Amino acid sequence: MEAGKDTRSVERQVWETQDGMYQLARWANRYSPLVGFPESVNWKRELAAQEKRTAGKHVGTQYAHQPDPRAAAWKTEAIWLDVTDVCQYFGTVTKLAARIRNDLIRLDIVARIAAASTVGASWAACLYLANPTVNQTVVLSTVQQNQQNQVAVRKELGQLPVNSLRLPATALDALARLGIVTLGQLIALPQEAIAQRLGAVVTQRCQQLFGQAIEPLKMIHSQQRYLSEQVLLGPIGGSQMVVDLFRHLLKPILGRLKKRGRGVLQLYCKFEVSRYGQRIYGDTVNGASETVVTASTHIEQFKIGLYRPTIECAHLVSLFQLAWEKVGRIDEMYHISIEASQTAVMQQVQLGLFTEKESEQPVAGNCELARDQIPPRVLARLIDRLTSRLGKQRVSRPQLRAEAQPELSFEMQVVVELDMQRWCRHVLRPVRKALDASSGHPPPATAQKTQHNRQRSGWALGQQLSVDSRPLWYWASPLEIQCHSKSRTGAPVRLFHSGSWQQVVRSWGPERIETGWWRSRAVRREYFRIEIDSGQRFWVFRQLPTSQWFLQGNFG
Amino acid sequence: MPASQQHQHDGHDEHLGHAEHDQSEPQGEDEQSDQKRILQQLQHLMRDFQPVAVAKSGEASVPTGWEQLDSILPSGGWRSGQLVEWLGEVKGGGVGLLGLWSAWQVAQRGGVLVVLDNTGKFFPPAAAALGIHLSRMLVVSPQGKADFDWALDQVLRCRAVGAVWVNLLKIDNRAYRRLQLAVEESGVFGVLVRDQKCLHDPTWAHLRLRATPLAGQGDWRFRVEVIRAVGGNTGASCELEFMEIENQQRSKRDGVLINHTNRPPIITNYSQ
Questions:
Q1: pTM for the model
Q2: Which of A137, B71, B94, B117 has its CA 20 to 30 A from that of A16?
Q3: CA–CA distance, A529 with A511 (Å, rounded to integer)
Q4: Which of B81, B130, B252 has its CB closest to that of A367?
């Protein structure tokens, strides 16, 4: 599948771009409380169109005008700051623009910055008057009451091309056919005639350009930081005290999240500590003292990740305890900070008539029935605990691959990549087919394969293997062994095992594979299942063409 | 000696003590044979009583897949909340596959099948060949003994886990007892596959079975002995064939019942 057309990769690209712009918008909140995007932008469509433009495919359309690839960037690459009544804190608009420019340069972000009295004017100035290569910022007059200023702005904007008016390509094409190139030419025409011939959108944009029509923006509110921190004196009285402190700091965060109907997805914990009585200081400004150690070397930090949002203090505390156990001995602690770095909307739970929350009590009665009724969160919590202590890579689910080579015939899928809610429900449900069969009723013939399985099954996955065809334990790097084989069939007859030659009682094979030529070198093997006189079974193969024998696995 | 073992032996000694008290009186050989007969009857009653008690408690046992094995197990099959120890040759002796199959039999009634593998050598295609749904399996790979013990304890305590399969090398008595209490509380079916060298180690498992492969016989034939069974008959043994699983799968797939008369002769021994 072509990477560019993969739906998931496109979605991810859209998400990354959107997330990047939102992050920038939140960063810009430091200059203004009102930061916004244009309303009703279909990010997916716009990014696909942008990709086309980058590839030069847009030229193929027969337009009378020369399309400007930057003209549509206002939808996905621009943010607006409402600096009304804000400039006084920074001096003037020019100083504010210069400060933003300098801060962005420090962050290695190239940007065009322009200030004007309307959204349309600021975009037009940004597109055609600002020059990012020489760090030039443009400030048009932002005082609308002044008649002289308005005339000057009209004159300056009138020289700009109509591309700056944020019009659709069809409208720009019509303007080009009529010979209208600049904004000055366009605004000189009667508004009624423009609306009649070119559509209402052109007149609307003209009015918005000069502030005669309202243009709403989608405002981004500054992100709520769910942060709680405390400065400490130093000595701590054991791990239980740290846990209590964690609980104490966590409760206000959870309270705030609960009010907003959100839950914790990730907790970021940071501790400024010292071990073995070595005193550290938070800052390294004072270089006179020899005992000053950089704080970064003595900061313990870790993240607690969850698969589903929660606001349950006890669960988070238990996860914290697991993570804290790995930190080791701590003698003194000077600062502790906890931040809910990722939050999500909590799942809606149906409340009972007389209960305030879902019952935590185990369901009494028949075990088999009760397991089906266990809420998925019980399993999700187990996964949380296991991954918190062992690491995400160590909790996985196997999945078969359509590969003949045993080393590559499966993959371990990290559980973090699964839809946890759906998977938990799936595994808690009994295998209906098996139940039907054990009760003597044959399963319905339609319940053979799901659509998902049909899509995944290749020739290697579809084949019916015997129950004793694959070993329970295997070596990813096969062990070379000594083996005597029959000259006719090639089946092994004696095997050197545990320091002595063992007689092969029975053998099954060969199962021949020839694969992997497209990776590095072709793999040609003849596999045999063998049973020695002690009853043990092994999975061995003969490498071709060298005829060396290798042990790949044993049957547990 | 573990407490449950102790308890069981105490109960047995009590009967014996009572018998000795009776024997201390000068009586004839007929009376001694009567006492033996009574003891035997009592043993049979106790053995029969156990499944009834389980049935009354509402817990249905899960068939093992082999009728001869069901007949020698105390509850006529596997039960949730049970710790089963499979002893045998773990390097190719097939005991691990038997254990994995038993774990799957219980796990398909609901709950995730957890495989605890600290060696990184577990081969999932073997499980797939057994008919195990890999989508219902969770492989946990802890590093180090502390993490291994902790992870085993955690998965055995979780009610959402159907069965746990683990190749257990060494475990101390206290940790083992904790595992027993964990499964009894949570209802998880725990399968511990251990090397036959651990035969004389103390155990807290509810059921301890030893599987010995019979070389060159049948379709991978095993002799399974009940070494220890809480509330059941120890010393009973049977022979079973691993490839019968395939027949069961085929019958499930095709909806056809197996003709048991075509099986090779299977021996079941009940110890007295």
A1: 0.61
A2: A137
A3: 9
A4: B81
